[in-house]
Amino acid sequence: QDYDPKVQKAINRIQSFEKVREVTEWAKEIGYRGISHDLVFGLPHQTWEAMESTIRKTMELKPDRLAFYSYAHVPWVKGVGQRGFDENDLPSGEEKRRLYEDGKKLLEELGYIEVGMDHFSLEHDDLYQSLIQKKLHRNFMGYTSSKTQLMVGLGMSAISDSWYAFAQNIKTVEEYQKMVEEGEIPVVKGHILNDEDLTVRRHILNLMCQLETTFEIHNSFPELENAFEMLKEMENDELVEINGHHIQITEKGRAFTRNVAMVFDLRMMRNKPETRIFSMTI
Q1: Same domain for 70 and 172?
Q2: Domain containing residue 163
Q3: Which pTM does this prediction carry?
Q4: Does any domain span residue 128?
Q5: Per-residue CA distances from 14 to 9, 18, 45, 119, 259 (Å)
Q6: How sure is the predictor about 280, in pLDDT bands with cuts at 50, 70 and 90?
Q7: Which end of the chain is more exposed for a tag (fewer CB within 10 A), N or C?
């Protein structure tokens, strides 16, 4: 996520560059394709100098693709290891924005192409090829070149997706192990998608994977009019272009893809006062 020892200590993620190099080389030796590294901006104590150093070290290993995520600060979630710092150690909104913009610019200078949001890929990689072939898919783990309607989550708190339903495993190691040992399915909660959910999901995936989507009047939902009002404001800021029922995210708006998609997240919008958004957008 970042090779700066001070940052790693603060987030309780100690991973030396040497160890990452070793694992990456092992993966290449046994024939893995699509090797990916995760980098995170907005971490406590993170500076542009440290971020640049991390990116340049990563380039020594030349992974096929990269995830360049915004740090999600979730101090209210138990057991996430985010206790080695306080709010004052986090970059300001302006500093975080600079980390993203400068990081993106450097990655592109080094030969990586932006794919959707948060992800970058070399031209030969399947992720980029799936983008230009309009086959890119996104699931809970990020972007994938394999468009599948089934994902099975293994381990505590993991989420499974059968396309028509979600299920989440129990959130503690002890309870998870106990249920598995007793032959029980360790699912604690789930949700069956209705027709409206499936329609919304399709448009959100279109926006996140292709940066565009088109609505059909006969297959809309009650809040569509309100959604388009919010999109009009985004169009005024040149983040999207609206042509009839077609929505296109602009180059300027790429960094705000989540914000655009949120307009169509009906469950979040309906419960907005009570909902705590997990991953803050830039």
Answers
A1: no
A2: 159-192
A3: 0.84
A4: yes
A5: 6, 12, 15, 23, 32
A6: very low
A7: C
